[in-house]
Specification:
The protein is an alpha/beta fold. Helices cover 37% and strands 14% of the residues. The chain has 13 helices and 13 strands. The strands form three sheets. The protein has an eight-stranded parallel barrel with strand order 1-2-3-4-9-10-11-13, surrounded by seven helices. It is globular. The chain binds flavin mononucleotide.
Length: 442
């Protein structure tokens, strides 16, 4: 590609991103555990030349009022799903969300290194700290870990994982039948990490993986989230509702990366984009109206309750303004601020906010023709707001099919998006350098 390349992730959510997608007659029943559907959509995204598929996660079911009315409590574990998808795709990147809060670094390092080998260098780790407070109960705790502690643990967790990924030189395993030497001892690195949260000796029992290190993705946008991303993330997934908010976030994160001694280009920023596209603007608006008509207010208010930081809003009047809420400690601070501003600036009632958030959850939301959608994406891409987008299809498979059929060719016509894969690994798709081995530790 001649110009700066635009990157696309396909964010695969069971049924699709609209909270009522599972009620649509065009969405397969039990989509969250339908491997055939995932295979189909991953292959669609690969034919459309997306950089990666992206899978979010929680290690608990959704709880609270309305949880029984949404489709998020029966889903595949992401690394298992992506390992299966690795076998039915060739080129597309595979990004799994895995929490640093309820996990051990050795397990996580090993699983992502395995996925990188299985897929020939297509693995990415979306490091999160858990925004679902119910996870605590599944890991021996009564209370969720607080925001600051989650991030302190996450920073050290990441250092350990990256250290373990450097357990072996790229050419450590010589497999020399004649001499009988299986690996070169000087190509082995013993991490011997000891810190406030972890004591991990290493080495990892997986050879250095095709990408050297899987790609590090990060999705928190609070102060602590940004500083973690600036130091370590190579791809950032973010929720931005407007061009000006996205521009401010983009400039801030690139500045912080530079201040941390990194190049601005070493960190790619992909806002989510919730897109309903039709052959015409009217057709897209009809699709949007059909989905909105399926919304159950109890489910929609439940979604806002969780997205706004795990506060139960079910007892509040639907047609009154959103109540004042304290700063969340268990949830996403950045999303709490985003949704609170949306409600305040638009003078929305709780019902109106819930209806608005039911599709794109506060992300850039577009409803229109291919030209409308491409115009908006191009403006964000060219005006300092994005290096690409994590596409959030409203329904699966239809919402992704529509984008692949209508918007991708329009982006290609404009010279913004690739017309073939030039690389084989996720790093190559994203234009990210392959990290050098850090050498043996004495
Ligand atoms: C766009 C976006 C997507 C996120 N996806 C997940 C997710 O899939 N699972 C999860 O546990 N946390 C997720 N998070 C939460 C964060 O990663 C983070 O670990 C934490 O909950 C705090 O976010 P904050 O830094 O914005 O406060 C996401 C956050 C953002 C902004």
């Amino acid at each position: 590609m001649a110009g700066r390349p635009l990157h696309l992730g396909a964010f695969l959510m069971e049924s699709g991103h609209h909270v009522a997608a599972w009620r649509s007659p065009h969405v397969p029943a039990r989509a969250g555990l339908d491997f055939g559907l995932y295979r189909q959509v991953a292959q669609t995204a690969e034919r459309a030349l997306f950089d990666a598929v992206f899978v979010a996660d929680s290690v608990a079911v959704e709880e609270g009022p309305g949880a029984e009315r949404i489709s998020r409590s029966a889903r595949f574990e992401p690394l298992t799903l992506l390992s299966a998808l690795a076998a039915v795709t060739d080129r597309i990147g595979l990004i799994a969300t895995v929490t640093a809060t309820y996990n051990e670094p050795y397990h996580v390092a090993r699983k992502f290194a395995s996925l990188d080998h299985l897929s020939g260098g297509r693995a990415g780790w979306n490091l999160v700290t858990s925004d679902n407070a119910s996870e605590a109960g599944n890991f021996g705790r009564d209370q969720h870990v607080g925001h600051a502690d989650r991030y302190a643990r996450a920073q050290e967790f990441l250092e350990v994982v990256q250290g373990l990924w450097d357990s072996w030189a790229d050419d450590a395993f010589v497999n020399d039948r004649d001499s009988g030497l299986y690996y070169r001892p000087e190509g082995r690195r013993v991490l011997a990490h000891e810190g406030p949260h972890f004591k991990v000796r290493g080495p990892l029992n997986v050879a250095r993986s095709p990408q050297g290190q899987p790609v590090i993705v990060q999705a928190g946008a609070s102060e602590a989230g940004r500083s973690l991303a600036a130091r370590s993330a190579e791809l950032v997934f973010t929720a931005q509702p407007t061009l000006s908010a996205a521009q401010a976030f983009y400039a801030d994160l690139k500045d912080r990366a530079e201040a941390a001694g990194r190049s601005r280009d070493a960190i790619k920023i992909l806002p989510g984009a919730y897109v309903i596209v039709g052959e015409s603007r009217a057709e897209a608006e009809d699709k949007q109206a059909a989905l909105q008509a399926l919304i159950d207010p109890v489910a929609a208010v439940g979604l806002v309750s969780r997205m706004i930081g795990n506060f139960d809003l079910s007892g509040y009047a639907l047609d009154e303004p959103l109540p004042e809420l304290p700063l969340t400690d268990s949830g996403q601070r950045s999303r709490q601020q985003l949704l609170t501003s949306l409600a305040r600036d638009g003078q929305l009632t709780l019902r109106q906010l819930a209806m608005k958030v039911a599709g794109g959850r506060g992300h850039l939301s577009l409803v229109g023709s291919a030209t409308d959608v491409a115009d908006a994406l191009q403006a964000w891409f060219e005006q300092g707001a994005a290096d690409g987008f994590n596409l959030m299809p409203p329904t699966l498979p239809g919402g992704l099919d529509d984008f692949a059929r209508l918007v991708v060719p329009e982006l290609q016509r404009r010279g913004l998006f690739r017309t073939r894969y030039e690389g084989r690994t996720l790093r190559e798709h994203l234009g990210l350098a392959r990290p050098a081995w850090r050498g043996a530790v004495a």
